[in-house]
Design goal:
The complex is a heterodimer. Chain A is 33% helix and 20% strand. In chain A, strands 1, 2, 5, 6, 7, 8, 9, 10, 11, 14 and 15 form an 11-stranded mixed beta sheet that branches. Chain A is globular. In chain A, helix 3 runs parallel beside helix 6 and helix 7 packs across helix 13. Chain B is an all-alpha fold. Chain B has a single domain, classed as Non-ribosomal Peptide Synthetase Peptidyl Carrier Protein, Chain A. The radius of gyration of chain B is 13 Å and the shape is globular. The two termini of chain B are 22 Å apart. Classes of the chains: A alpha/beta, B mainly alpha. At the A-B interface, loops of A face helix 3 of B.
Chain lengths: 409, 87
C-alpha cells in the first residue's frame, strides 16, 4: 500500500487569510468569532458568526471571474493557491491525468442560492441569472480548482455535512494509496452565513446567542457553561502526494496522512452515536498501523453543543480505553467556528501544524469543567509537546463519521 | 432607436468578452467573438434587463451573430411598444 504525504496547506477562515494567520490564532486561543457583518442580522437569535475578516474578492478575482464564483468557491481557490505555492508542485503534462481534486462542502453556493431565491420569492422576480446553477452547485469548487490548475485525474465533491472535508481528504488519500492518482488537492470550503441558512440553523436550537462578555466568547467546547455552536465559513486545502513522488522531488513533507476511517451510525438524523464513531477511530489507527497508545493529540469535532461534547468524550473512552485520560484533546472550533464543510480541513491543518511545530493547540473559552466531560481538553493555553501521531475527528449530522490519522514526518 | 439598439448590444458583448467595441460589428459571429452557449445565455439575461423584453428560448437559441441579436431585440422592442399602445 502506498503512503500519502502532505506537502502543502492553505487556509482562509475567521482567523484571517493564510495558514500562518490560522495557526497563530489557534495557538493563541484568539477567537475569530464576531458580530455578523455578511448581512444585517438585526432580530436574529444568532448574532455572531466566525466570518472571514477583511475579505475583498476584488483583490483576487476580476469582474468576469467573480460573476462565476460563489463565496465558497472563491475561498477554495484562495486556499488552494496558498497550498500549491507551499508544496512547490509542478506537473508535467502527462502527470495532470493522475492529479485530482476532492473538495467537501456542506452547502455549496449557499449565499448565491439565498440571494437568488430572495429575488424570486421575496421581490417578485421571475428570472434568475444563467450563472446561478454553476455558482450554486456543490462541485463548483472542485471544478474551478481542476480547471485553474489543469488537473484531469479523479475529481469529486463530498457533501457529508460537517464531515465533508474529512471524507474529501480521506477519500483522496485512498485514491493515492490505490494508485489511481499521484497528487490530490483535497479539503473543503463553505460560506453559509446567509440569512435563510442562519434562520434554519436557529430553528435547531443549537446555535450560540451573543454572550454578554463578547462575541469572541460564544463558542466554548467542553466547558460546562457552553452556549452552543457558532457558524463559520472559510476553506482549508491540503496538497496530498504519494510518498515516493514527494520524496523523489525533494519536497518538504509536513506530515504523513497515515490513516482514514469512515463509518455511519445508522441510528439518528441529528443525534450522534458512540459505537460507530469509535470504530472510525479504530479503522483509521489500524490503517495507519498505530496503536491507541501512539496517539498524543486528538483534534476533536468539539462543536460546543452539549450532545456533541458529552458523546465525543464517551467515544474517546471507547476508542482509547485507559489511554483516553492521557490524550491531549482540543477543539479549535472555539476560535474558527464551525465552518461546516471546511471545518474538518481546517482542523486537519491544525493537526498537521501541531505535529510539525510540537505544539498542542488549546481549547479556547474553557472556563468551567463539566463532570460529563472529564478528559484533558488543553484549556486555553497551548502546550509545547512533541507529538508523534494525532487524529482529527469529524462527526456529521446524519451519523456520518470520518477520522483522519496523521504521523509526524 | 435602431442605432441605439445596435450600439447597446455591441457594448454589452464587448464588455462581457473584454473586447474593443470598435472590433464588434453586426456581421460578427458568436464563434468569432468567443461567445460560448453559457456566454450567450448571460448575454440574453443582460439584454432582457437592458431592453425590458423577454427573449423566448427558441429565439435565443437560434441567434448566432450580433446582427441576429440586434434584429431580434428590435422585433421584441417593437412588439412591446405595440402591446403598450394597444392596451
Amino acid at each position: 500500500m502506498r503512503r500519502v504525504a502532505v506537502t502543502g496547506v492553505g487556509a482562509i477562515s475567521a482567523l484571517g487569510t493564510g495558514a500562518p494567520a490560522f495557526w497563530s490564532g489557534v495557538v493563541a486561543a484568539r477567537s475569530g468569532v464576531r458580530r455578523i457583518t455578511n448581512f444585517d442580522a438585526t432580530g436574529f437569535l444568532a448574532q455572531v458568526a466566525a466570518e472571514v475578516p477583511v475579505y475583498d474578492p476584488t483583490a483576487y478575482y476580476d469582474d468576469t471571474e467573480r460573476e462565476m464564483l460563489d463565496r465558497f468557491a472563491q475561498f477554495a481557490l484562495v486556499a488552494t493557491a496558498e497550498a500549491w505555492r507551499q508544496s512547490g508542485l509542478t506537473l508535467a503534462e502527462g502527470e495532470r491525468d493522475r492529479a485530482g481534486v476532492s473538495i467537501g462542502s456542506a452547502m455549496g453556493g449557499a449565499v448565491t442560492q439565498d440571494e437568488r431565491y430572495k429575488k424570486l420569492y421575496g421581490e417578485g422576480g421571475t428570472r434568475a441569472h444563467p450563472f446561478s446553477i454553476p455558482r450554486i452547485m456543490n462541485n463548483a469548487a472542485t471544478s474551478h480548482i481542476s480547471m485553474r490548475y489543469g488537473l484531469r485525474g479523479p475529481a469529486m465533491a463530498m457533501a457529508t455535512a460537517c464531515a465533508a472535508s474529512a471524507h474529501a481528504i480521506g477519500e483522496a488519500s485512498e485514491m493515492i494509496r490505490a494508485g489511481r492518482a499521484d497528487v490530490m488537492i483535497a479539503g473543503g470550503a463553505d460560506a453559509p452565513i446567509a440569512p435563510g441558512i442562519v434562520r434554519c440553523w436557529e430553528a435547531m436550537r443549537v446555535v450560540a446567542p451573543a454572550p454578554a462578555d463578547g462575541p469572541s466568547r460564544a463558542c466554548r467546547p467542553f466547558s460546562r457553561d457552553r452556549l452552543g455552536m457558532v457558524l463559520g465559513e472559510g476553506a482549508g486545502i491540503l496538497v496530498l502526494e504519494s510518498w515516493e513522488r514527494a520524496t523523489a522531488r525533494g519536497a518538504r513533507i509536513l506530515a504523513e496522512l497515515a490513516g482514514y476511517g469512515a463509518t455511519a451510525d445508522a441510528e439518528h438524523i441529528t443525534q450522534p452515536g458512540t459505537r460507530s464513531p469509535a470504530r472510525a477511530i479504530a479503522i483509521a489507527l489500524e490503517q495507519a498501523r498505530l496503536a491507541p497508545t501512539d496517539i498524543d493529540y486528538v483534534n476533536a469535532h468539539g462543536t460546543a453543543t452539549r450532545l456533541n461534547d458529552i458523546t465525543e468524550t464517551a467515544i474517546l473512552k471507547i476508542a482509547f480505553e485507559d489511554h483516553a485520560r492521557k490524550l491531549a484533546i482540543s477543539s479549535t472550533k472555539a476560535v474558527h467556528g464551525h465552518a461546516m464543510g471546511a471545518s474538518a480541513a481546517l482542523e486537519a491543518i491544525a493537526t498537521i501544524l501541531a505535529l510539525g511545530e510540537g505544539v498542542i493547540p488549546p481549547t479556547a473559552n474553557y472556563t468551567e469543567p463539566d463532570p460529563e466531560c472529564d478528559l484533558d481538553y488543553v484549556p486555553n493555553i497551548a502546550r509545547p509537546k512533541p507529538i508523534g501521531a494525532a487524529i482529527s475527528n469529524s462527526f456529521a449530522f446524519g451519523g456520518l463519521n470520518a477520522v483522519l490519522a496523521f504521523r509526524r514526518a | 432607436m435602431a442605432d441605439d439598439i445596435e450600439r447597446q448590444v455591441i457594448e454589452a458583448i464587448a464588455k462581457k468578452k473584454k473586447l474593443d467595441p470598435a472590433t464588434v460589428t453586426v456581421a460578427s459571429t458568436f464563434e468569432e467573438l468567443g461567445l460560448d452557449s453559457l456566454d450567450a445565455a448571460d448575454l440574453m439575461f443582460t439584454i432582457e434587463d437592458t431592453f425590458k423584453i423577454l427573449v423566448p428560448d427558441q429565439a435565443a437559441l437560434t441567434m448566432k451573430t450580433v446582427g441576429e441579436v440586434v434584429g431580434g431585440v428590435r422585433q421584441l422592442v417593437a412588439q412591446r411598444a405595440d402591446g403598450a399602445s394597444a392596451s
